[in-house]
Design goal:
Elements (H helix, E strand, L loop, with lengths): L1 H5 E3 L5 E3 L1 E10 L2 E11 L4 E5 L6 H9 L6 E6 L2 E4 L12 E4 L11 H11 L4 H14 L15 H13 L5 E5 L7 H18 L2 E6 L2 H7 L2 E6 L2 E6 L1 H6 L4 H6 L4 E5 L7 E3 H8 L8 E5 L4 E4 L8 E10 L4 E6 L5 E6 L8 E6 L1 E4 L5
Parallel strand pairs: 5-10, 5-11, 8-9, 9-10
Antiparallel strand pairs: 1-2, 3-4, 3-6, 6-7, 11-12, 13-15, 14-21, 15-21, 16-20, 17-18, 17-20, 18-19
Helix pairs in contact: 3-4, 3-5, 4-5
The structure holds adenosine-5'-triphosphate (ATP).
């Protein structure tokens, strides 16, 4: 029965398929680039592989595409095994398409010819060829640019041509390797919208490699956070933000402060009163790492009560809609907070924390 929900045909005609990555390992000589990584990706899911440079994201993507073999484990698309130490389905037989950081468009071909190139190679001609190219251009909203040459397009438009070229062959899975890395900040934001729209229109299974957490959070249904070849956490952007498993994940995702508290245990949410009591304990008692997001911090100028702490304002940055404050607690830990107005640098403020999330120490 598993095959029934691992392969589905969606409204655009693209056949989305689920990907199963089971304890996949890749070694380059002595170096383990990907270490027993397992993920179950559902049909039509938008998944980001996120992690710092060198953590093995691109290697994992290249193993999915078939450009690298695997040393251990298994990759399956629906019920079909694509890779294991005994099996290696070549890239062109995997029903996947990959979009690279450098769009790699042919400079001497028009947009339409670039997009149609993969199906022309397969011998498609005539009306069906024209229709497929038109459909692929429509998916990235570039129908009006069919006859332009790539040099006459913006970076974002070129990246959309590359996307259309990968869609024309109707892949089950689209693999994207840092597709926005070469674009400026403004264009990246625009392209994030294009990618989300594109995913909604096609319903294709997308695996997206990035080292940019804001990009991953904005785009993906689920994020695999990787560190040194290993999967550290696999969850929705909301879970990663609110319930990071380790202190390292918390430092990588969103803004926040990590404090030591004498309360709770990993995976527990501390409510206000317990958190404040735990923070007021002696240093030797405070052994549990807790994450406090800035939106869970209240700042006041009145004197602290039993459930407040006093903090010194060390830095104030204007962020338009609010001020970002860097505060020093009596424990000498720093706390990042938001506030509507700007307290004086050097002044004392009363701080009250609504909640905190307890994490595992890093391995
Ligand atoms: N062909 C190769 N031969 C030897 N080592 C390699 C090879 N490809 C990758 N590596 C190593 O494997 C590790 C993972 O590389 P990978 O490119 O997958 O990382 P990444 O997370 O994608 O990094 P980045 O964000 O910088 O692209 C790195 O230490 C890298 O040097």
């Amino acid at each position: 029965m598993a095959g029934l929900n691992t392969e589905e045909r969606n409204t655009s005609g693209l056949s989305a398929a689920g990907l199963s990555i089971d304890r996949v390992t890749k070694r380059f000589g002595e170096h383990v680039a990907v270490d027993e990584l397992s993920l179950e990706i559902k049909p039509g899911e938008f998944v980001a592989l996120l992690g710092p440079s060198g953590c093995g994201k691109t290697t994992m993507l290249r193993m999915l595409a078939g450009f690298e073999s695997v040393n251990g484990g298994r990759i399956q698309l629906g019920s079909r095994t694509l890779a294991s130490p005994e099996t290696h389905v070549p890239p062109e037989q995997r029903d996947m398409a990959m979009v690279f950081q450098s769009y790699a468009l042919w400079p001497h071909m028009s947009v339409a010819d670039n997009v149609g190139y993969p199906i022309k190679l397969r011998g498609l001609r005539g009306t069906e060829y024209q229709q497929r190219v038109q459909q692929a251009l429509a998916l990235v909203e570039l129908e009006a640019y069919a006859e332009r040459m790539p040099q006459a397009l913006s970076g974002g438009q070129r990246q959309r041509v590359a996307l259309a070229r990968c869609l024309v062959s109707d892949p089950s899975v689209v693999l994207l390797d840092e597709p926005l890395a070469n674009l400026d900040r403004h264009l990246r934001a625009t392209m994030e919208h294009s990618f989300r729209d594109f995913h909604q229109r096609t319903g294709a299974t997308l695996v997206y490699v990035t080292h940019d957490q804001t990009e991953a959070m904005a785009l993906a249904d689920k994020i695999a956070v990787m560190k040194a070849g290993k999967l550290v956490q696999w969850g929705t952007p909301q879970t990663l933000y609110h319930e990071p498993r380790t202190a390292w994940v918390a430092g990588f995702i969103g803004q926040g402060s990590q404090l030591k508290v004498a309360a709770g245990s990993p995976g527990k949410l501390l409510e206000h009163a317990t958190l404040m009591r735990g923070l007021n304990a002696t240093e030797s008692e405070r052994t549990q790492a807790v994450l406090v997001r800035p939106e869970h911090i209240q700042i006041a100028t009145q004197l602290p009560s039993a459930h407040q702490l006093t903090a010194q304002v060390e830095n104030v940055i204007f962020r338009g809609e609010r001020y970002e404050l860097s505060l020093r607690l009596p424990s000498s830990e720093t706390l990042l907070a938001y506030h509507r107005t700007a307290p004086k640098v050097g002044s004392q403020v009363a701080v009250s924390l609504d909640q905190g999330w307890c994490m595992e120490p890093d391995q």
